[in-house]
Amino acid sequence: MHLTSSAMEMSAALKTLRLLWEETRAGWNDPVSRDFETNQWQTLETRVSAALRAMDVLAPVIMRAQKDCS
Predict the structure, then answer these.
(1) Which of 17, 26, 30, 55 lies most in the core, judged by the most C-beta atoms within 10 Å?
(2) φ and ψ at 55, to 5 degrees?
(3) Domain map of the chain by residue range?
């Protein structure tokens, strides 16, 4: 498994989730939806975005280590 391809897959999944959340939010506007957005969706989006940034930093380091070890 390559970190770069995993990051691309995760990024695509996050984009899909964002689109689906926007569609859902258009028809679901009550205190529960706002609570979900604040306490679940935004937290998830923030953590996935942070993981993607970390994967971008780690990918070249791992590739270099694999090259050095082969």
Answers:
(1) 55
(2) -65, -35
(3) 3-69
> SS3 of 70, please?
coil
pTM for the predicted model, two decimal places? 0.83
What region does 2 belong to: left with phi over 0, alpha with psi -120 to 50, or beta? Answer: beta
**Residue-level pLDDT at 39:** 97
Residue 10's alpha-carbon distances to 25, 63, 69, in angstroms, are 22, 19, 27
